[in-house]
Amino acid sequence: MIDYFKGNVNEKVDKLHYIISNNIPFGICNIVYQEILQGAKDEKEFKLLKEYLSSQRFYDLKNGKESYEKAAELYFKCKEKGINIRSTIDVIIAQIAIKNDLLLLHNDKGFSQMALVKPKLKEF
């Protein structure tokens, strides 16, 4: 979504544009919401993004501490396989997608690497 709002052009942005143009339901998590809002260039854009994104469905971790343990386990398993995940936040986003049985649309190779270790992380 960040690439989409920045006006970047790539395959993932095309997929998101298709989803939005065809009114296909989608959702975000609180962390992605924060990341997008932080990227606003001015107050007007911040308010516009907030209004639009607030109307979307929000997903979150479902099982409290256990969810964070599963995210840490995913990080650990990646590390065991020699995959260096750069962000704790990305592992949490991946765990949100896994626990909510969602397709994850992203433009970050870290998620693709996690999906190699955890097939339940489904990419779009």
Overview features:
single chain; 124 residues; mainly alpha; Rossmann fold; 2 domains; two-stranded parallel ribbon; 4 strands; 60% helix
Distance between the termini: 13 Å
The number of helical runs is 7
Mean pLDDT, all residues: 91
Strand tally: 4
The radius of gyration is 15 Å
Query: What's the CATH H-level homologous superfamily of the largest domain?
Result: 5'-nuclease
Low-confidence stretches: none
Strand order of the largest sheet: 1-2
CATH-level-2 architecture of the largest domain: 3-Layer(aba) Sandwich
Q: Report the portion of residues in β strands.
A: 5-15%
Helix content: 55-70%
The tally of domains stands at 2
Largest beta-sheet details: 2 strands, parallel
Q: Helices and strands: which structural class?
A: mainly alpha
CATH topology of the largest domain: Rossmann fold
CATH class of the largest domain: Alpha Beta
Write the H/E string, N to C: HHEHHEHHEHE
The outline comes out as globular
Protein model, in words:
- Helix 5 crosses helix 6.
- The protein has 124 residues and is mainly α.
- The two termini are 13 Å apart.
- The strands form 2 sheets. It has a two-stranded parallel sheet with strand order 1-2.
- The protein contains 7 helices and 4 strands, in the order ααβααβααβαβ.
